Amino acid sequence: MLLSLVWLSACRPRTQPAPSPQPSSIASLTLSEAPPSGFLAQIATWHPHDWRVHYLLGITAPNFEDKVAHLRRADSLNPQEPCIDYMLVLAHLEEAGESDDPAHRNQALQYSQAGVQQHPRHAALHLLHFYLLARGGEVPEARQALNIPDLGGGFCYDRLEEILIGLYDRAGRFNPYALMEMAEIYRSVPLPPFEIMMDLLYAIFLEPLERRPYDIRIRGRDAAVKLYNLGYRLRTSSQGIPVLFSDGYEHVTMGYMLQLKAAEFLTLHHRAFGDTLQSREVFSALMELQSRYLEYLSRRPWESSLLDNFFSSWEDLASTSPEMTLAEADSLATTWPLWRKAADFRYPVQDEPPAATRPD
Question: How far apart are CA 110 and CA 49, in angstroms?
Fold first, then answer.
């Protein structure tokens, strides 16, 4: 699975962004005068038919209506992109809130259903679809949502980096100052509802089928094993794939949580059915996995030293050299590690909209 993801990532034709100078309208401004970049708003006026514009406007929109409107527009321009379906599901889940509004939950379910049908190997869509089916009480269908071999795809954070770099490059706004805005957009994307999804797992494992109430031993074990393996694939899927703002923390965390919950269930499952040896073996694996997870969290993987240093360097520069022009600051920032990494980043050529769809 890991090799197939890396192979797929490597085989898609990619291109390297071309650094662009600051526009003349702000290049001579000093750091004390320079406004927040606001490049995305400008790019939206220049390229209103680029699906990436609406995707980014959607995930950063301050209200639900604008979020969904932009994401649906992005979907109409590029119906082949699974991350648009994924974000539409999350938008409706977020709007449903703690009250679990059935209208929004049903709308989210429609998007997840369409998403898994069009993208049958996308793990994140399958997990959200599994969650929505379980939340609606459709337990057999929820189990089936996990019964998909060789799932790929993560939670769209690596795709977000590709979308950001590709769009800003196309617009001629790929420079260190704009990179701050790209990083802020990346940080604005919500995490999936990890805890809520975990709470539903036992219901999926233990709910008996109406016509075969006594086969729970096999079905519970098999569902837990599938979930454990899926967690492993998610946990390792970020390795070998180019990343800029994150080291795949989101994928790794979700993978660990799925594996831990599945191992916990299997430990109790084997104990309940009198298989003491198997229970001890799985419990030992659970403890080892828990130890690895705690060690992983101790490194604070959600923090990016490159990203934090990039922001602090800009803040220090504005504080110590407020009269430096933005063009001069940009030139200095090209020596910083995050920018050097961004300049070497490669995004898929296929993300560029065909000429027929961009009269702008």
Answer: 26
The confidence score (pLDDT) of residue 357 equals 44
Contacts of 45 (CB under 8 A, 6+ apart): none
| Banded pLDDT at 61 (limits 50, 70, 90) | very high
> Cβ atoms within 10 A of the Cβ of 144, count?
13
Look at 125-139, 239-253, 343-357 and tell me which has the smallest mean pLDDT: 239-253
Name the nearest CA neighbour of 120 among 110, 132, 112.
112
What is the Cα–Cα distance from 61 to 70, expressed in whole angstroms?
Answer: 8
**Which strand (E) or helix (H) includes residue 194?**
helix 194-199
Residue-by-residue DSSP string for 248-308: SHHHHHHHHHHHHHHHHHHHHHHHHTT-HHHHHHHHHHHHHHHHHHHHHHHT-TT--HHHH
- Mean of all residue pLDDT scores within the chain: 83
For 47-86, the DSSP string reads: -TT-HHHHHHHHHH-SSHHHHHHHHHHHHHH-TT-HHHHH
Per-position DSSP letters for 92-122, written without gaps between them:
HHHHHTTTT-HHHHHHHHHHHHHHHHH-TTB
Between these two residues, 202 and 81, which has the higher pLDDT value?
Answer: 81
> What's the pTM value of the predicted model, to 2 decimals?
0.83
CA within 13 Å, CB half, 116: 25
Question: Contact 194/257 with Cβ under 8 angstroms?
Answer: yes
**In 10 A of CB 333, how many CB atoms?**
19
CA angle 93/154/189 to nearest 5° reads: 50
Q: Is a pLDDT exceeding 90 seen at residue 17?
A: yes
Q: Which residues contact 89 (CB under 8 A, 6 or more apart)?
A: 108, 111, 112, 115, 125, 128, 132
Tokens representing residue 271 in the block: 């104990």
Q: Which residues, 6+ apart, have CB-to-CB distance to 305 below 8 Å?
A: none
Contact partners, residue 75, CB within 8 Å, separation at least 6: 51, 81, 84, 85, 88
pLDDT in tens, 206-237: 555 455 444 556 767 777 887 888 788 878 76
Handedness of CA 303, 307, 311, 312 (dihedral sign): positive
